Amino acid sequence: MTNDISKKLSDSKPITIQDIQAGFNQLAEQTNQTRDAIETESIPILLALGGIALLGIVYFMGRKRGKKRSTLVELRRI
């Protein structure tokens, strides 16, 4: 097995700067495609979560205001 690996290493051509640049360009292209796909999917999700958060804030603010303004009536039996 060691001979097989050393044979492959000795038969391979040297790595050039163009090979490294091509590899980085391919990686950058794949990353951009993935980012674009995630962005298009995440925008509606973020808008929905923002709307739900806004509704929650409005609800709790109204609840707090209602508690401050409501009159407490106590009924006692005589």
Blueprint (SSEs and pairs):
Elements (H helix, E strand, L loop, with lengths): L1 H10 L5 H53 L9
Q: What would you report as the Rg, rounded to the nearest angstrom?
A: 33 Å
Major sheet summary line: none
Tell me the fraction of residues in β-strands, as a range. Answer: under 5%
Order of helices and strands: HH
Structure write-up:
With 78 residues, the chain is mostly helical. The protein has one domain (14-69). 81% of the residues lie in helices and 0% in strands. It has two helices and no strands. The radius of gyration is 33 Å and the shape is rod-shaped.
Task: Describe the structure concisely for a colleague.
This protein is mostly helical.
Please supply descriptive tags for the structure shown above.
mainly alpha; rod-shaped; 2 helices; 78 residues; 0% strand
